[in-house]
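To close the chapter, one final illustration. This time we ask the reader to focus less on the individual chains and more on the assembly as a whole: which components sit near each other, and how the overall shape emerges from the parts.
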Amino acid sequence: MSMKTLFDKVWDSHVVSSVENGPQILYIDKHLIHEVTSPQAFNELEDRGIPVFRPNQIVATADHNTPTLNQDQPIKDDLSRQQLEQLSKNCKKNDITLYELGHKYNGIVHVMAPELGVTQPGLTMVCGDSHTSTHGAFGAIAFGIGTSQVAQVFASQCLLLTKPKSLRVTVNGKLKNGVLPKDVILYIISKLGTNSGTGYFCEYAGNVFEDMSMEGRMTVCNMSIEMGARGGMIAPDETTFKYVKDRKFAPQGEDFNKKVAYWKTLPTDEGATFDKEYTFAAEDIEPMVTYGTNPGMGIKISETIPVDENPSFKKSLTYMDFEAGESLINKPINFVFIGSCTNSRIEDFRVAAKYIKGKQKADNVTAWLVPGSKQVEAQIIEEGLKTILEDAGFELRQPGCSACLAMNDDKIPQGEYCVSTSNRNFEGRQGQGSRTILASPLVAAATAVEGKIIDITKYLN
Amino acid sequence: MEKFITIQSRAIPLSIENVDTDQIIPARFLKATDRKGFGDNVFRDWRFKKDGTVNEEFVLNDSKYSGHILVAGDNFGCGSSREHAAWALTDYGFKVVISSFFADIFKGNALNNGLLPVQVSADFLSELLSLVENNPETELEVNLEKQIISVKYSELSEDFEIDAYKKTCMINGYDDIDYLVNNKELIEAFEANKIY
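The assembled structure is written out below.
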């Protein structure tokens, strides 16, 4: 029998049939939806008179448009409110479970679904959101889809797809003090560029990922799309099983044990081959920051911005108002965002609170600390982190996508820099004319305290 | 979906690399619940200045250029999965986007909306960009049946690849839903015999 990768095993077990000389029909186990990319798909089905095929395999949440203050009050923005009302209406009509704004399970789709145990190894999962790659942290095939595909999954619980090629990124060794999973993925993307993964599904292997918590693995897989890969995966292991066990939608009792036995067969066989492989040493990774307008434009915090004559590169630096060759250390920063589906889990707030404890937020800094879900919010309070943060002059907001894409009121003003734990530093991503510097929750916390970017590595040593 | 066979048109040159879907349609315009009208805001923050006035320097505002074909730099459509990007481009009037590389999700979304992504070599793209930039009257022809992109009244042309199934869909105006719904029995049989 030929040797198979984790990706092959999950993919092959979900192929319903193949179109001659064409794509395959791939079965989708779990479909996550939110208010922004689903309404047109519901409309399409209704127009064509097609019912939702498997409503019990769909989970809905409101996250992209939601305010992060006063969630108990009606949403002021008419369009946002209508979009949420539309979601509620569509879910009710089609018998779809919705965790709407204010519900104890509400949150960013890629934070709440794993928390509820919807995300499990060996599954295929989709959502009309490119950061669906997050769920690959459990050894699931998870990827973002467009709204036409959302309609296809509604109609048939399947998609027509051509099997992507396989890519493996291996990182072995010991990470330095202060280097977080976010730094690992920013480092990888800075080395490989934003389109090296296009057409591929990526597996992350090596002891660095094995040693990570599920939260860390989710941060890594989340950003797979930023190097173009439709998804990223990490082999399920004891850390995964322990995380999934006893969650609301996880298999229970004997069922769980049976699943674990199956999940243990999923990791890539020794000797299986990949279409492309990259290997990095953990020791070379340092806390990272981005300086440009795509996530591949990243440097170690102690490095200087590279010199490049490419017009698109120069356009990017002009937008950021940075010079080639300069360092970002000591750059004054007025905005800090800790949140998004990349870094809004409990571990991220623990890291931030640990650094912040006993210090004070800099006066020039407006900091938005936005938990990924109601459950994370509750845990922040339970662990006493909220008190630590408030004592230091920070305010904890309510869950949602928030300033990651600035669909709600959380917008960074024109021309301002924001050190952000989110995933995209595209022009205007955090508000028209905003300038995003991507970083880990630790670098973000340090920036908020200092009011400028500091060399966190030196500080920790 | 509208049928696509051959397009003959002038083109608009957008020689910027890594054009992400946030540029094609910024997130603040994603609050609609239907598919219409996104063309008004395509490349919004490049077409207009912050104060709402027209940015004369942006190529879409340059009256020299017109047409249903967008010629764009490498890695077009990266980032967010928002299909609104494809809707915005088609609503604005584009039927073809030419680049040396497309992001996966955007490419799929484009094909699902009758917008043809034509991937050409880096050399051909750079030749095409400078040709169109310098001669806005340049006419291009995109022949999906033969999978050829050519510059009219010249020898310049290149073959392009497209998935055979998707090509049939584009030419006949089919979409995937029809195909999937017609295979419901197979899907139900799969569900009954799942091995995982």
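Residues 13 and 133 of chain B are 6 Å apart (CA to CA). Chain B has a mean pLDDT of 95. With these observations in hand, you are ready for the problems at the end of the chapter.
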